[in-house]
Write a structure and sequence with these properties.
By secondary structure, the protein is an all-alpha fold. The protein is rod-shaped, with a radius of gyration of 32 Å. It has two helices and no strands. The protein starts with a helix and ends with a helix. Helix content is 95%, strand content 0%. Helix 1 runs antiparallel to helix 2.
Amino acid sequence: YMGLEEVKRSQQQQSDRNQDLENVRRSLEADLRKEYEKEMEERLFVVTEQYAADIESTKTHAQSLQDKINNLQKSTTPRQPTANVQRIEKERDSEKQLRVQVERKVETLMDQLNDYKKEISRYKDNERNLKIRLEQQSLESDNLKSL
């Protein structure tokens, strides 16, 4: 009879240890998930802020170039058409180069954003797989306890 009590007590202790380990694992998993999501949000925020700053900078620069072009066109006199035309063309070339640079930067930022989305998707897939494994382990544990 004492042997049965000891077995029951040992099983209960093992069950308590298993439950403690499970609680620790869940807590660590939740902390890790929160930390990862926070990091992804911060990265996305930084990329978005940089993108917005680049757009504003480009708008300001483009407006400045347009103002210069307008001023050059207004100040053109018949005696110096060649110099003014060359300046206007140089400004337009500069504006085109800036547009190309901004388009490249936008493409890079969009690629980064897509990479972050893929990384988040992989994380969610891993989380789903972990939950499935946890359920399987729980079922196995329940089956072992019932024996």
